[in-house]
């Protein structure tokens, strides 16, 4: 396999997966990083697509995250917290 090739595995998950918290946290972090890179730091469409296309999330998790993304004041606080954590 060349260094340019990438193996991608898609995992089907269940609600009782013990690593749900980590999976959800990574999905939220990814969505927030997309949102932060848009025009004026607000690329909500790209963040939403990232959540919708994440096959590791359950429908309930996906809907909850999307609901939180719609509440921009919560997202701004999460983005600020992520920046503080990243700088430590």
TrEMBL record:
Protein name, entry field: 6071_t:CDS:1
Organism of origin: Dentiscutata erythropus
High-level lineage: Eukaryota, Fungi, Fungi incertae sedis, Mucoromycota, Glomeromycotina
């Amino acid at each position: 396999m060349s260094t340019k090739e990438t193996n991608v595995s898609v995992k089907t998950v269940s609600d009782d997966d013990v690593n749900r918290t980590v999976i959800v946290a990574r999905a939220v972090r990814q969505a927030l990083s997309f949102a932060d890179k848009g025009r004026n730091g607000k690329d909500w469409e790209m963040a939403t697509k990232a959540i919708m296309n994440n096959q590791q999330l359950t429908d309930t998790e996906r809907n909850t995250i999307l609901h939180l993304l719609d509440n921009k004041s919560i997202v701004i606080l999460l983005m600020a917290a992520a920046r503080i954590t990243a700088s430590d």
